[in-house]
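Hey team,

Filing this mostly as a record. A colleague (T.K.) asked me to run one chain through the structure pipeline before their review meeting, and I want the input and output archived in the tracker in case anyone asks later how it was produced. No errors, nothing strange. Just documentation.

Input sequence:
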Amino acid sequence: MTEPTGTTRATRVTDHGGGVHSIRVPIPDNPLGHTLVHLIDTDTGPVLIDTGWDDPASWTALTEGLTACGTTVTELTGVLVTHHHPDHHGLSAKVREASGAWIAMHEADAAVVRRTRESPPARWYAYMAAKLLAAGAPASHVAPLTAAAEAGRPRRLPGLDAALPDRAITPGDLLDLPGRRLRALWTPGHTPGHVCLHLEETHPCGLAGNGRLFSGDHLLPGISPHIGLYEDPSVEEGSTDPLGDYLDSLERVGRLAPAEVLPAHQHPFTDAPARVRELLAHHEARLTGLLGLLSAPLTPWQLAARMEWNRPWADIPYASRNIAVSEAEAHLRRLVKLGRAEAVPGSDPVAYAAAP
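Output structure:
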């Protein structure tokens, strides 16, 4: 693969023009490879969009990348977090400690950060075990979570001690970045508080369209982000519709028609409306395919095991199976809300079938 124009091979830093750079920050042991952390110049100092995974190699890549951009971590004035996941928010605390920078996040994701910090790890292990059992997971799969909950295992999962933001990103508002016009768009689906950030400025290369969009994980050029159920014990079961939220958000981004999209993974791209149409068609085809599988009643676990993934179900690692089941549940919930599927009365664990 050739390097993008303006990318230096040693540091993996790209100059996108107009005071915008990106830094490839590695994600350890993850097929995505890296997070594209963006740096935007402002009249009061540089601001990061996301920070990357909390890992020594990632921190080195970030700090060396900042140096290659002509600045240092100590000069950063702020961090805008597209969403709370650890490959985006993981290094925010270290950035703030090194620079005194503020951290901003949408309130819905800030609530997730507060909840995970305040809850004992055993509660989360027990919650996940109960969710998986309700989804029809076999006892052998749930046993490690149950054992961890009973043992009071200490925190070992990334993101459980993520930095608390000190500013809120309010959808629709221009962010307080002197000399720039950056507007927040609420794009829930991948997480409840995911935001895209729209740079309402003429593209530096004169590309036709409506500015540039920092899309986080919402809109990616070659993959579809994970859409699962939001992990929130306080929310009434069945009341959320993450896939519906995501599809609605996609359509709004498509109507925006930015000249260029700067995502958090893979590479920049143009023609956002075309990519939105592809993703809408992908999810509609997937929903239709799931209805075929639901010709006989299936639990979410059974449905996930029959869905098409990037590898056979038998080869999917333990943690990834949990994510797959969550995605199956999100699609099931969308089908139920559309009246295309329904829960089978009296089934335990609950199974679903195509509506007559």
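Quick notes for T.K.: The two ends are 49 Å apart (CA to CA). Confidence is low (pLDDT under 50) at residues 1-5.
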